């Protein structure tokens, strides 16, 4: 039978989030019921709750960085068992038959179902991790290794894979020069992961304010983009630059930092189009690319990699009644480096 659970939702676009209850579907043949322990706050939660990326489905329960424990399984479940430590990321279903799904790249499926602000196969809206429980098909649930505490693991389900995927795809590793642009919720994960992969890592941040943190996370160098000398002195230096910033940057200047045949990958999503001069790409045979999250297999690979290297997100844990305060602080860049909701603070 379906279950009513506590949640926090935006009742209308741009409205403060407020406590509510939602209905989770009956556990089906291949479903698992997860008691959510922690839910990360991603900036994309704010964008969607405020309809900054287009129309949303309201009331909206955000949250796609979910870590918890399995409390019930359907009769056909083979991947997970009661008591397992698990996670759920940015999507909870896909068509399973297209080339992307068959190739383990479910994140590109045109019929994919988001963890929230989407419509499931049953025609009902999906609700995210700002709640006490969630029901998810076993094929879209990740195993969280025992070496990873659940609270620092939660942001890996979005921030972690968002950085792991391009670093792996473009072969960050020993002998490569990698730059991470911005050191916020995404960027700090990029520094940790690129360092663990063996790359020489440079942080490119507007100022040197976070320099000590960057070096502690594994950066070899930390340079301020607010200093024009940075772009002169580092010209032609990097094999790979991963841009995590969602503001409009002068991409031509960053392309100038690439070595010949280097790649600038964007994982941030600016609100407005960004102009690029074609000669910034043509001269040197450089590439401008985009990347998002990863598929289920790659996300599991990322979690195992992070466990093996002792990598978790830097977090500030909050009770649920501070979600709106946290939203304001995220917008103001006043968090180091990811807020995580402790769901034990929900009223039961």
UniProtKB/TrEMBL annotation:
- Which Pfam family, giving just one, matches this sequence? ADH_N
The identity of this protein, by name, is: alcohol dehydrogenase (NADP(+))
Q: Source organism lineage?
A: Bacteria, Bacillati, Actinomycetota, Actinomycetes, Kitasatosporales
Q: Which InterPro entries match?
A: ADH-like_C, ADH-like_N, ADH_Zn_CS, CAD-like, ER, GroES-like_sf, NAD(P)-bd_dom_sf
Alphabetically sorted, this entry's keywords are: Metal-binding, Oxidoreductase, Zinc
Domain Enoyl reductase (ER), which positions? 3-341
Name the family.
Answer: Belongs to the zinc-containing alcohol dehydrogenase family.
Tell me what reaction this enzyme catalyses: a primary alcohol + NADP(+) = an aldehyde + NADPH + H(+)
Keyword Electron transport in the entry? The reply is no
- List the SMART domains: PKS_ER (SM00829)
Into which EC class is this enzyme placed?
A: oxidoreductase
Q: What is this enzyme's EC?
A: 1.1.1.2
CDD domains attached here? CAD1 (cd05283)
- Cofactors, names only: Zn(2+)
Q: Does the keyword Metal-binding apply?
A: yes
């Amino acid at each position: 039978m379906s279950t009513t659970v506590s949640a926090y939702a935006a009742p209308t676009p741009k409205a403060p989030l407020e406590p509510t209850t939602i209905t989770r579907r009956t556990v089906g043949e291949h479903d698992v019921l997860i008691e959510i322990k922690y839910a990360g706050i991603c900036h994309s939660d704010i964008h969607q709750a405020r309809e900054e990326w287009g129309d949303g489905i309201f009331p909206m329960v955000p949250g796609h960085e979910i870590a918890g424990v399995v409390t019930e399984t359907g009769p056909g479940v083979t991947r997970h068992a009661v008591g397992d430590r698990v996670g759920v990321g940015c999507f909870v279903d896909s068509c399973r038959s297209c080339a992307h799904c068959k190739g383990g790249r479910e994140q590109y499926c045109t019929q994919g179902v988001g963890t929230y602000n989407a419509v499931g196969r049953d025609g009902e809206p999906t609700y995210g991790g700002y709640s006490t429980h969630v029901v998810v098909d076993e094929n879209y649930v990740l195993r969280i290794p025992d070496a990873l505490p659940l609270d620092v693991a939660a942001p890996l389900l979005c921030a972690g894979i968002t950085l792991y995927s391009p670093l792996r795809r473009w072969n960050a590793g020993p002998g490569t020069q990698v730059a991470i642009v911005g050191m916020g919720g995404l960027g700090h994960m990029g520094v940790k992961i690129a360092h663990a992969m063996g790359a020489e890592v440079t942080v490119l941040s507007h100022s040197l304010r976070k320099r000590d943190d960057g070096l502690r996370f594994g950066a070899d160098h930390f340079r301020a983009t607010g200093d024009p000398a940075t772009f002169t002195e580092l010209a032609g230096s990097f094999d790979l630059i991963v841009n995590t910033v969602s503001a409009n940057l002068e991409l031509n200047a960053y392309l100038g930092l690439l070595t010949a045949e280097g790649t600038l990958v964007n994982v941030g999503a600016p609100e407005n189009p960004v102009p690029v001069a074609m000669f910034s790409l043509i001269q040197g045979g450089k590439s401008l690319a985009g990347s998002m999250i990863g598929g289920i297999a790659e996300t599991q690979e990322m979690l195992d990699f992070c466990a093996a290297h002792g990598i978790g997100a830097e977090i500030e844990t909050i009770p649920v009644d501070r979600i709106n305060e946290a939203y304001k602080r995220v917008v103001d860049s006043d968090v180091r480096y990811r807020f995580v909701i402790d769901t034990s603070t929900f009223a039961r």
